[in-house]
């Protein structure tokens, strides 16, 4: 009988056909439960259970090598599958079904759940650098990534910084404060900046190439971390004079 195997027909003792093993198929005339390849030129091949086709699943008592049907979307069925297997996180099996193995998510995409039929685009503020990503990596402080950017998080440019993670656009990088110099890319902490040099005044967005652009105003003197506004707070003392760029009264 299809879907069963037996070495002997029914007897008075009640012994009859046995269920076909899971992961295989038993066409009519199957005589035993040892699965083998279909070899029509050999008698053993004609009476052996046949392995379930790849991409299909064959539960117990299957009579066809296509068993209960094609492997459903989000699952895979290698040869001799008795049940579909959900693809793990970081992989997918397409909506067309019939997968024999999981497919890895490509860089720039991720899949957080088992049984996915597709991978999701990596969100802004995160990176998905490797094949098989299942948890996006948040952009670290001092970096950002928009959806239009490449796979990696980019450093905030010179003259800016950010102590926050997960930035989604370069505009979220904060301008370097007045009185300080931000010479490096990807700065995450104000402590990584250095003071505006004596004799100079530094406004917002100052870097190493512009820290000497604004000399202290004549008639005033400027110590470290002087801002463009503060430069007018320290007057040259009576009996002294201060040229432009003076660091202390003369």
Automatic annotation (TrEMBL):
Biased composition (Polar residues): 1-14
Gene3D superfamilies: Tumor Necrosis Factor Receptor, subunit A, domain 2
Region (Disordered): 1-25
Source organism, top-level taxon: Eukaryota
Signal peptide: none
PANTHER family referenced in this protein's UniProt entry, alphabetically: GENE 9195-RELATED, GENE, 32742-RELATED-RELATED
Name of the protein described by the UniProt record: Tyrosine-protein kinase ephrin type A/B receptor-like domain-containing protein
Organismal lineage: Eukaryota, Sar, Stramenopiles, Ochrophyta, Bacillariophyta
